[in-house]
């Protein structure tokens, strides 16, 4: 069964068609990328998949079930978790606390448990702490667990966001331009982390403008232009596709960068 199937997704904003009958399948294994020039409709597509926009037409199937227009929290609770173009961290909380917050969809302790601290809630807290520390190590921020998010350089904040998203134990992780604002070394590290997330069994679907990252990291790429899917294939196939090169207007260089 595919992890995700997008079937004829269309989004109109008044007279503007941001997505026009886009369909594709994301298998359970691997790293999947959506690329396309500015305004091609990538973010709108992500917003529909993750429940932030209701499609005008079409369906989103996750693990074989219809999740079209479900609220984002319910979609996340099912295991489809996303990050945003601009890191949305709790700047005043520490690295560890931020990741613990990301885990709350997988824990049952509420306010009463936090106040009364029954044995099961204490056990849950210990587990949350352990998992959060493992994830911080996993993205290479192990030595900064007690540092405030606001004190991290931007590149590390983006990695922290990935750790926080992983804390919710997603089976499908949507990354919205994870390399935006990262330098060359940080982008290489990000590529490695994405591959390792995939190796741990989480399917990764990303939107990205950094072609080097996409070509190196993705197993399969969908290309959008003016809201339509114009191609899909392996990185090699996509880079050689004349329609894709044309869409990027002189982008042959960009694609082979
Ligand atoms: N809420 C909205 N209301 C009206 N038009 C919108 C809205 N959101 C997006 N659009 C339009 O839909 C089209 C697709 O935008 P979208 O942000 O999905 O593209 P994108 O591929 O993510 O672009 P970028 O790479 O620049 O982030 C654009 O023409 C955009 O102006």
What is the compact description of this entry?
GO terms for molecular function: ATP binding; ATP hydrolysis activity. Pfam families: ABC_tran, BCA_ABC_TP_C. This protein is of the alpha/beta class and 257 residues long.
CATH H level, superfamily name of the largest domain? P-loop containing nucleotide triphosphate hydrolases
- SSE-based structural type: alpha/beta
C-alpha-based Rg, rounded: 19 Å
Q: How much β-strand is present in the residues?
A: 15-25%
Strand and helix order: EEEHEEHEHHHHEHEHEEHHH
Uncertain segments are none
What is the number of independent domains? 2
CATH architecture of the largest domain: 3-Layer(aba) Sandwich
What ligands are attached or bound here?
adenosine-5'-triphosphate
Spatial strand order of the main sheet: 6-7-8-3-9-10
> What is the mean pLDDT?
90
| Top CATH class of the largest domain | Alpha Beta
Silhouette: globular
Our measurement of the CA-to-CA distance between the termini, rounded to an integer number of angstroms, reads: 35 Å
Could you please say which CATH topology of the largest domain applies here? Rossmann fold
User: Helix tally?
Assistant: 11
Pfam family, one: BCA_ABC_TP_C
GO cellular component, one term: plasma membrane
Keywords: ATP-binding, Nucleotide-binding, Transport
Protein name: High-affinity branched-chain amino acid ABC transporter ATP-binding protein LivG
């Amino acid at each position: 069964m595919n992890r995700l199937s997008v079937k004829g997704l269309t989004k109109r904003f008044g007279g503007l068609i941001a997505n026009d009958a886009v369909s594709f399948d994301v298998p359970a294994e691997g790293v999947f990328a959506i690329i396309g020039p500015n305004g091609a409709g990538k973010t709108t597509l992500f917003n529909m998949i993750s429940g932030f926009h209701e499609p005008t037409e079409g369906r989103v199937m996750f693990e074989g079930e219809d999740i079209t227009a479900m609220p984002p929290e319910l979609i996340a609770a099912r295991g489809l978790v996303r990050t945003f173009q601009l890191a949305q961290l709790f700047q005043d909380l520490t690295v560890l606390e931020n990741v613990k917050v990301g885990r709350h969809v997988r824990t049952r302790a509420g306010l009463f448990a936090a106040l009364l601290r029954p044995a099961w809630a204490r056990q849950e807290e210990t587990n949350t702490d352990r998992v959060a520390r493992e994830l911080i190590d996993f993205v290479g921020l192990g030595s900064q667990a007690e540092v405030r998010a606001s004190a991290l350089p931007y590149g590390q904040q983006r990695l922290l966001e990935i750790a926080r998203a992983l804390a919710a134990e997603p089976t499908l992780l949507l990354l919205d331009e994870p390399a935006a604002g990262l330098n060359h070394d940080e982008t290489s590290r990000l590529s490695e982390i994405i591959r390792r997330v995939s190796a741990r069994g989480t399917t990764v679907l990303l939107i990205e403008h950094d072609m080097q990252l996409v070509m190196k990291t993705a197993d399969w790429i969908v290309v959008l232009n003016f809201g339509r899917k114009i191609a899909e294939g392996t990185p090699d196939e996509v880079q050689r596709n004349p329609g894709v090169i044309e869409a990027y207007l002189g982008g042959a260089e960009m694609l082979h960068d």
